[in-house]
Design goal:
Elements: H1 2-27, H2 35-50, H3 54-76, H4 79-100, E1 102-106, E2 120-125, E3 131-132, E4 139-141, E5 151-155, E6 163-170, E7 175-179, E8 182-185, E9 188-189, E10 192-196, E11 201-206, E12 211-216, E13 218-224, E14 227-233, H5 237-246, E15 285-288, E16 302-305, E17 310-314, H6 324-327, E18 330-331, E19 335-345
Antiparallel strand pairs: 1-2, 2-19, 3-4, 5-6, 5-19, 6-17, 7-8, 7-16, 8-9, 10-13, 11-12, 13-14, 15-16, 17-18
Helix pairs in contact: 1-2, 1-3, 2-3
C-alpha cells in the first residue's frame, strides 16, 4: 500500500516537471544554461512514464529537477531582474510617500527667521490636512484643517509654480489687525515678550547681489494658543514698546495692517500681479471700528475678516515677510502640509567643506 502511494507521488512529480520543462523549451528557444541536457533528460523521463518504468523515472527525476531549477526557474527570475524589481518597488514607495504622506522642502528666504533659516531642509506632513490628488489642489480625504500657530507649506496663491511657508495666524471668520507689531485676532492680542534687543542680528541672503548681509533685529517670544514661538522684528521695536507704555508713541508702524485707505489685500497687490494668474481667492472684508483720528496710533481701529475656506498667514520675521498682509489669505485647497522637523541645515556646503553645516539645528522640530 505504501509502495503504491510512493509510486503515485513519483509519477505525479515527474509529470509536473516534464510539463514545466516542455513549456519552457517551447516558449523560450534561446533558454540559457543546460538547454540541451534539459531536452535529453525530459525525453528520457517521458519515455519511462509511457513505458510505466518507474525505476528509470526515479533515476532521472533528481537530474531533471536540478536542471529545471537551474535553467527554468532562474530564467524566469534572474538576479538582475531581482535588482530591477527591488529598485522599482522602492521608487514607487518613495513616490507614493512623497505624493501623499511626507515631502522634503528647502527654505529659500529669511521670512521665517528665527524659526527657520535659509538653507534649512525640512520634512512636511502632507497627510494631516488631507490626501491630495498629485499635481492638483483636489483633496479626497481630510483628517482636519490647519490650526492657529501651525507652520504650513502651501501653493502661493499668486503663482502656482511656487511654494511658500508661513505661520497660520487666523482662520476663516477670524478678524485680524496688526498695530505697532502687536497681532490682534478676534480683538485680542497675541502676547509677546522681549527676549533680545541690541545683540539681535541675523544673516540674510540677497539673491540679486549674491551675497550675505548682516541685519539688526529684536527677538520676541509670541504665544498663539498653547504654541510659543519666536519672532524677529525691526531693531527699533523695543523703543516703540517703551513709548507705547509711556503713552508717547504718536505714529504706527510701516507694517501695520490694515492701513486706512488701502484696499483689501489680494494677489492684485502682490509683486506677481503682472503674471495675471487667477488665484481663485475670496477677497476678505476690511471693517472700520473707529473713525480716523478717534484712536491712538497703536490702538485697534480697523480689522480684516478672513474669508470662508481660507487662512491668514504671516512670516515670523515680521518686518521682512511677504505674506497675507500684502496678497491676502490662502485658500485651504492650496495647503500642502504641516512642517515637521529639520533634517539638514547649512549656509554653505561642498564635498570638501562641511564648515557651513549647522549641526545643532538638525533634528529640531518646527514649532
Amino acid at each position: 500500500m505504501r509502495s503504491a502511494s510512493l509510486d503515485r507521488r513519483v509519477r505525479k512529480e515527474a509529470v509536473m516537471l516534464v510539463r514545466e520543462a516542455r513549456t519552457a523549451l517551447a516558449k523560450r528557444k534561446s533558454i540559457r544554461g543546460k538547454a540541451g541536457d534539459l531536452e535529453s533528460v525530459t525525453s528520457d523521463v517521458e519515455k519511462a512514464l509511457v513505458a510505466k518504468d518507474l525505476q528509470t523515472v526515479r533515476v532521472h527525476l533528481p537530474v531533471l529537477d536540478a536542471i529545471v531549477d537551474e535553467v527554468v526557474v532562474r530564467e524566469k527570475k534572474s538576479t538582475s531582474r531581482d535588482y530591477v524589481e527591488s529598485i522599482g518597488a522602492a521608487v514607487l514607495i518613495a513616490l507614493a510617500l512623497r505624493a501623499f504622506v511626507i515631502e522634503a522642502f528647502k527654505i529659500p528666504s529669511s521670512s521665517m527667521y528665527p524659526t527657520l533659516e535659509i538653507g534649512d531642509h525640512i520634512f512636511v506632513n502632507k497627510f494631516i490636512y488631507g490626501v491630495r490628488i498629485p499635481w492638483t489642489t483636489t483633496k479626497f480625504f481630510q483628517f482636519r484643517g490647519p490650526d492657529r500657530g501651525e507652520v504650513i507649506v502651501f501653493i502661493y496663491p499668486c503663482d502656482p509654480d511656487r511654494d511658500y511657508i508661513k505661520r497660520v495666524i487666523a482662520l476663516a471668520g477670524d478678524t485680524v489687525e496688526v498695530r505697532c507689531n502687536i497681532v490682534f485676532v478676534n480683538g485680542k492680542p497675541y502676547e509677546s515678550k522681549l527676549l533680545e534687543a541690541e545683540s539681535c542680528h541675523y544673516d540674510d541672503y540677497l539673491e540679486n547681489d549674491n551675497e550675505w548681509v548682516r541685519k539688526a533685529c529684536s527677538r520676541y517670544d509670541e504665544q498663539i494658543g498653547d504654541i510659543h514661538h519666536q519672532t524677529f522684528h525691526d531693531a527699533e521695536r523695543p523703543l516703540r514698546d517703551q513709548r507705547i507704555a509711556q503713552g508717547t508713541q504718536t505714529s504706527g508702524d510701516a507694517r501695520d495692517f490694515p492701513m486706512r485707505g488701502a484696499s483689501s489685500p489680494t494677489c492684485a497687490n502682490s509683486e506677481d500681479a503682472a503674471k495675471g494668474y487667477d488665484a481663485q481667492q475670496v477677497r476678505g472684508k476690511v471693517v472700520v471700528t473707529k473713525p480716523a483720528g478717534s484712536a491712538g496710533a497703536c490702538e485697534q481701529q480697523m480689522h480684516y475678516v478672513v474669508p470662508p475656506g481660507h487662512v491668514f498667514v504671516m512670516g515670523d520675521n515680521r518686518n521682512n515677510s511677504n505674506d497675507s498682509r500684502i496678497w491676502g489669505s490662502v485658500p485651504l485647497e492650496n495647503i500642502k502640509g504641516k512642517a515637521l522637523f529639520i533634517w539638514l541645515s547649512y549656509s554653505t556646503w561642498s564635498v570638501t567643506d562641511w564648515n557651513g553645516i549647522r549641526w545643532p539645528r538638525i533634528g529640531e522640530f518646527v514649532k
